[in-house]
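Most newcomers find our protein records easier to grasp once they have seen one. Sequence and backbone structure share a record, each on its own labelled line. To make this concrete, we reproduce a full record directly below:
***
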Amino acid sequence: MIELFVFVAASAMVLVGALGVVLRRHPVHAALSLVLTLFGVAVHFVALAADFLAAVQVIVYAGAIVVLFLFVIMLLGVDRLEDLRIEPFKVQRPVAVVVGVAMVSLLGIAVAVSSDTGTATPGEGVAVAGFEGEALHDGNIIALARNVFGRHVFAFELTSVLLVVAVVGTVVLARRPRRGEATSDGAAS
C-alpha cells in the first residue's frame, strides 16, 4: 500500500513538473518545474532501490544542470516576455507537430512491443553489458565506475570539456552591446 502511494505521489510530481516546464511562460519558473520533475524521478529511483541513481539524479541533474540552466537564463536576460505570434521560421510549428506525432507514435510502438516481453531477472542486464564476472563480485557501482573511469574515460572527459565550451559560448553570445554602448569598432549602436 505504501509503495502504491509513493508511486502515485512521485508520478504526480513528475507530471505536474513536466507540465510546468512546458506551460510556464517565465523561464525561471519553467526551470524550477524541471527541478520538481527531476526530484520525482529520483523518488522513483529510490522506490526501485536504485539509491546511487537517485543520488546522481539529485546531485547532477537537479543540482548542476538546473543551476547551469538558471545561469544561462539570467545571463541571457530572457526574463522578459517575447511576442510568440512572430515566428522567425515559418515551418517551425508544422515540423514540431510532425516530430511530436512521430515521437508519440514511436513511444506507443515501444510500449506495445515491450508488453510482449517477459520480466527481467536481477543480474540479467549485467551479462548483456559484458561484466559477467566483475559486476557480480564487485557490485554494480564498482563496475559502473570501472566502465566510466576506465574504459570510457576519454568520452567522459570530452563531455565535460564540451559542457565548458557550451558555457563559454553562451557567455560570448550574451555579451552583445546594449543601446548606447560602443561596439568593438567604436560606433554607438
